[in-house]
Design goal:
mainly alpha
Length: 170
């Protein structure tokens, strides 16, 4: 069995790398995200096993890379590239511990804004938006409340109130 695994480690790495390459490029250009997102995530996880088998099979040769400066340079460059993505997110979202796509940030801002600030988005003033929410079963004590506060006061999740919002103002 080990000879079968070691025989297929490199071909599996090659095949899975090509799949990861194509799906990663498609995701980068926002092409077929519905097709490629799960494929890219899952098959990248599957790639771990043949990678480990490949390293195991070629352990002695692999150790030789550490005797030359190329491995140190490549490792430092890879770490620096990763940090170029991580550091800005940590600096921007470090206080809240939140991150994600910009639309998530916009939704969080909406959830934390007062009803009087949000009301014009729905063609209403603060009192009109508050009344619309009350008609849908929400507890609204003032137009200074945020959507999150209204949801909490009503015993509902913040997601539920976001789902109900599009019907307001129509």
């Amino acid at each position: 069995m080990p000879s079968i695994l070691s025989r297929y480690a490199t071909p599996l790495i090659t095949g899975l790398f090509v799949v990861s390459l194509v799906s990663g490029v498609a995701l980068f250009f926002h092409l077929g995200s519905a097709w490629f997102h799960s494929m890219h995530e899952w098959l990248s996880m599957v790639l771990i096993l043949p990678f480990v088998l490949h390293i195991w099979k070629n352990w002695r040769a692999f150790l030789n890379y550490f005797k030359r400066p190329a491995m140190a340079v490549a490792s430092v460059a890879s770490l620096a590239a990763a940090l170029a993505f991580v550091v800005p997110v940590l600096m921007a979202d470090g206080a809240t511990g939140r991150s994600g796509p910009p639309e998530f940030t916009a939704v969080r801002a909406m959830q934390n804004a007062s009803l009087s600030v949000l009301a014009p988005l729905y063609g209403q003033d603060g009192n009109g938006l508050a009344e619309q929410l009350r008609e849908r079963g929400y507890t609204v004590e003032s137009t200074d409340m945020s959507l999150n506060a209204v949801a909490e006061a009503s015993g509902k999740s913040p997601r539920e109130i976001l789902v109900d919002l599009p019907a307001i103002g129509n």
